[in-house]
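ARCHIVE CARD
Drawer: 12
Card no.: 0347
Subject: one protein chain, sequence and derived structure
Cross-reference: see card 0346
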Amino acid sequence: MSSESRPARIARTRWNAGWWSAARRCDSPNFGPRPDGTRVSLLVLHSISLPPGEYGGPAIEQLFTDRLDWDAHPYFRTIRGMQVSAHFVVRRDGSLLQFVSCDRRAWHAGRSSWKGRDNCNDYSIGVELEGLEGEAFESAQYDTLLALAPGLARRYPIEAVAGHEHVAPGRKGDPGAGFDWACLRAGLLSVGIADWDFPDSAT
């Protein structure tokens, strides 16, 4: 087995039609075209666990690929019929899954706005961190996020990063107080990304 770290492997990988070669590809049917001429300028971070607070199972992947058994858990009945997706999911162990090409519009932000611009799905990339809103995330997840960020920055003209809670305030609260924005800011600086905007409330 190679001693090379996951972040190092991610950092040297490549794009193909919006797919990142370091991620395990899991095609979702829940996507559409971006509006013509759209610049992909925003990274939106989320948190997700299915059922809430349970990690490592197949439910996230099943939800994003429209294969979730709505009767398998009482919570699933509350989201029955939901059709959603994100571009990426970062598991608790740092493993990376991709569901939608970053050249396409994933269905992750819903009704949203950033800096006065509505419909964030049109111009953003959505990354779901496996976790429970308000609780802490794993160091491996930050490592993967910080390895992915330079690849995104090279490929897309990203100008800002925000949480779902910042683009849909009052409606969404993820990733929540457990996400370490200071760690992300310092990590981005360490990989040469110093010019992304952050939400005013992200310290």
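Annotation on reverse: The radius of gyration is 16 Å. The first helix runs from residue 6 to 11.
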